[in-house]
Amino acid sequence: MSDLTTTVSRYLDIWNEADAEKRAAAIAELFTADAPYIDPLAAVEGHEGFGAVVAGARDQFKGLTFELHGTVDAHHNQARFQWGLVTEPGAEPIAIGFDVLVTDEAGRIKAVYGFLDKVPAA
């Protein structure tokens, strides 16, 4: 379980990485080459696809941070967890989501399925 908790932490770190080159390197290290990322707003595959989704979110929500809310629930090679998009650590999230990630035998993410529980007002 702790390995998947670490994977989730590294996954959220990618969303919070401001440097595009560091973000791309982290994605290449953590994700398999053809991993799909699917949520209500995007359905992409591979490192570049996921990287573009993260870059778009970072542009849209400048200065905000993704943080884990609650604990990671994991078994076998899958984990589910809730995250919040916050203005500062511990603040009330302006957005809340629920993601499920699946890893391969080596511990690399081979798929992410996301759900949005709370979205910012338009």
From TrEMBL:
Which InterPro entries does the protein's record reference? NTF2-like_dom_sf (IPR032710), SnoaL-like (IPR037401)
Domain annotation SnoaL-like: ranges: 8-110
Q: Which residues cross the membrane?
A: none
- Tree of life domain: Bacteria
Under what name is this protein listed?
Polyketide cyclase
Q: Which organism is it from?
A: Streptomyces bungoensis
